[in-house]
């Protein structure tokens, strides 16, 4: 089955706002259009957008329970209590643990951390983790990127005399756990303005709250922002407002002064400044995730906290090996899944995918689900076997709330959680057929027609001749790009091949194009060679973004083709 042809859509924009911005800023209308689409409607808002400042961060004490969390952590430090940092096994959890460990270890010696085994303990605060806290004498446990639904585990900890502070960003399901403090902007009673912090971002706000309470200079926190940037990018939370500020300064820290362990990861993944969000998501993130997917998630924390370069390089090299093994297993599992689905009777008519395959390792079911969404563009849940239970990981398509859909199937699960685009479920294996049937019903009821086909959202029409160095200098300032602030995609009409374009062996196309008698632009189109061949000898419309490429010290501006269609 070939991938679906995307629908092209010009984003609706208030042209009156565009004209006002053009008058105030004196920049190209296409740039004003992108600002308007991102909610930047005034000169003052544009200044804040183009000049991020740490002064734009919200007070941590606007978050519900922050005062209680800071008071309890301060008491633990004053009394020399043993504090256990408990994190989820993905990038968000491991960076959150590393952030609080790096910060607290400056003035508190009685620290430890725990990350659950993905295969044995699964997601969330495990009973095994609570037992570890009890046996090691911890009297305070801080749960990072998990805990909002850990009612029983938190109650057990309380029974042992262990207080729990939850730093989580997943959607609460009813009343929160009986913790000493629950830091989660998604709480219905929480007025914190940024509802979409990463789990590590919430851990940073706890550090920020403690620093304010203790009278520490704000500068002492700035070297923690690299952790926040790693988590914010890899967890795909919206890069707007406070998240954009945190990521802007965090990436700056990664570029100028990376800590030893991150430097080693950058060396091993060939990530070099200037860093883009995609460098973090596809370069650094998979190495950190490989620790928990293919073994011990504590290996990710160890490399993040490494002090000595040689040791850090050795640890990073081990994560590279694990990630390669993960890639091999993932490719094989995805291939088997695609074959199984396409051979299913009635598959073409289905709106959803719910696939059970006990041979898929638990550590990669989320990645396989993502690959199936890329291939078939349907809300997807991939399930595997874990004893008598089935463990599933789901991914969604833009415009469809997966968490809300799974809530409609909630009577079948022993547990589930997540958010609109990604979620995890657990259910008895014998209920899988019921779930497959119910999930398809819910998706059919809820999936908007506009979400059934992939879409290219175009920011503006743009003449290739208008792509000048000055245009690019301003466009670069829109970064960092990611969810909520996506890389702008433009539409160029009536483009022609110069005759110098060529299709590459991997299915990509190397472009050389122009509009009329305008300048020649080069570029790349990944997986677009076949489509280009269909249109190569006549005028075509081009959906594209812009990117800088550096080769042998020379930087050039190139087009990144996203799609072609007949003019």
Describe the structure.
With about 575 residues, this protein is an alpha/beta fold. It has four domains: about 5-10 and about 455-565, OB fold (Dihydrolipoamide Acetyltransferase, E2P); about 55-255, inorganic pyrophosphatase (n-terminal core); about 260-330, no CATH class; about 345-450, Diaminopimelate Epimerase, Chain A, domain 1 (Roll). Helices cover about 40% and strands about 20% of the residues. It has helices spanning about 15-25, 30-35, 45-50, 65-80, 90-105, 125-135, 150-160, 200-215, 225-235, 240-255, 260-270, 275-295, 300-305, 310-340, 365-375, 400-405, 430-445, 470-475, 530-535, and strands spanning about 5-10, 85, 110-115, 140-145, 165, 180-185, 355, 380-385, 390-395, 415-420, 420-430, 455-460, 460, 490-495, 500-505, 510-515, 520-525, 540-550, 555-565. A five-stranded parallel sheet has the order 3-2-4-5-6, with helices on both faces. It has a five-stranded mixed sheet with strand order 7-8-9-11-10. A five-stranded mixed beta barrel has the order 14-16-17-19-18. Strand 16 (about 510-515) and strand 17 form a beta hairpin. Helix 4 (about 65-80) packs across helix 8 and helix 5 crosses helix 13.
């Amino acid at each position: 089955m070939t991938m679906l042809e995307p629908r092209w859509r010009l984003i609706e924009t208030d042209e009156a706002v565009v004209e006002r911005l053009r008058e105030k800023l004196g920049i190209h209308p296409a740039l004003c259009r992108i600002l308007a689409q991102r909610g930047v409607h005034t000169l003052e808002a544009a200044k804040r957008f183009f000049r991020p400042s740490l002064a734009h961060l919200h007070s941590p004490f606007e978050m519900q329970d922050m005062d209680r969390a800071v008071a309890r952590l301060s008491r633990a430090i004053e009394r020399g209590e043993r504090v256990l940092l408990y994190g989820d096994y993905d990038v968000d959890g491991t960076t959150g643990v590393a952030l609080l460990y790096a910060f607290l270890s400056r003035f508190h010696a009685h620290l430890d951390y725990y990350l659950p085994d993905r295969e044995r303990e699964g997601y969330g605060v495990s009973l095994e983790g609570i037992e570890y806290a009890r046996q090691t004498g911890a009297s305070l446990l801080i749960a990072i990127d998990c805990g909002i639904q850990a009612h029983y585990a938190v109650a057990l900890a309380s029974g042992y005399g262990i207080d729990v502070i939850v730093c989580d960003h997943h959607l609460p399901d009813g009343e929160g756990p009986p913790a000493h403090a629950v830091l989660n902007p998604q709480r219905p009673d929480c007025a914190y303005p940024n509802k979409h912090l990463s789990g590590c971002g919430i851990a940073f706000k706890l550090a920020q709250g403690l620093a304010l309470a203790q009278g520490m200079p704000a500068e002492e926190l700035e070297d923690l922002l690299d952790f926040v940037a790693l988590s914010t990018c890899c967890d795909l939370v919206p890069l707007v407002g406070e998240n954009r500020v945190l990521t802007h300064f965090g990436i700056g820290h990664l570029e100028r002064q990376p800590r030893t362990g991150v430097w080693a990861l950058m060396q091993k993944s060939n990530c070099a400044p200037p860093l883009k969000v995609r460098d973090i998501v596809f370069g650094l993130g998979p190495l950190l995730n490989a620790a928990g997917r293919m073994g011990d998630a504590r290996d990710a924390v160890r490399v993040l906290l490494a002090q000595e370069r040689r040791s850090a390089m050795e640890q990073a090299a081990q994560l590279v090996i694990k990630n390669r093994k993960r890639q091999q297993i993932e490719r094989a599992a995805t291939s088997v899944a695609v074959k199984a689905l396409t051979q299913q009777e009635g598959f073409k008519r289905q709106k959803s995918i719910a696939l059970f395959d006990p041979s898929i390792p638990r550590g990669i079911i989320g990645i396989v689900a993502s690959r199936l969404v890329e291939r078939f563009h349907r809300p997807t849940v991939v399930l595997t076997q874990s004893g008598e239970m089935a463990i599933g990981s789901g991914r969604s398509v833009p415009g469809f709330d997966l968490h809300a859909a799974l809530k409609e199937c909630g009577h079948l699960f022993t547990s589930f959680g997540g958010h609109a685009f990604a979620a995890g479920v657990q259910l008895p294996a014998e209920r899988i057929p019921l779930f497959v049937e119910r999930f398809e019903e819910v998706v059919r009821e809820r999936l908007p027609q506009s979400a059934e086909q992939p879409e290219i959202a175009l920011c503006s029409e743009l003449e290739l001749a208008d792509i000048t160095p000055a245009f690019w200098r301003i466009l670069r300032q829109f970064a960092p790009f990611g969810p909520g602030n996506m890389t702008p995609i433009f539409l160029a009409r009536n483009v022609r091949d110069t005759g110098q374009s060529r299709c590459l062996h991997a299915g990509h196309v190397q472009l050389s194009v122009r509009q009329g008698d305008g300048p020649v632009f080069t570029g790349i189109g990944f997986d677009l060679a076949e489509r280009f061949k269909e249109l190569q000898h006549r005028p075509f419309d081009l959906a594209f973004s812009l990117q800088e490429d550096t080769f042998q010290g020379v930087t050039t501006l190139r087009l990144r083709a996203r799609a072609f269609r007949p003019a």
